[in-house]
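# step 3/5: fold
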Amino acid sequence: MGFRNSGKRESGRLLVQVVEKRNASTLLPIIQKWISTDCLLVVSEEWKAYGKLKNLNYNHEKINHSKNFVDVNNSRIHTQTIENRWGQIKNLMRKTGKISRNNFSQKLKEITWRINNRENIQTKMLEIVTKNYNL
């Protein structure tokens, strides 16, 4: 089991989805569901599964992480945003201690929610409590 994540630079939103396989037949439908082909730019590492994005009409650029994390010719082509988010996820996972495989997906959803709502987390939590307990 693995998961792939998508950080939307402009919106600052993070989407994380647990997947059984990290192959093209699994990942491409997820990308197509969440990312419009009129998106200005999709940037990824050189994972083989992403190779078909141009054929699906995405403006797709790749970064070879063995050489660099930012394109030397175009600083907009980088994976720094998602690498930063991945670091946040791993850091929050470490703080929670050991997570069972059964709880992994739920914990990942919680962490993603926390990252997406970090600016106003107390307000968002109060909204949820108020809504769910009719306060």
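# step 4/5: annotate
The chain has one domain: 2-132.
# step 5/5: archive (pending)
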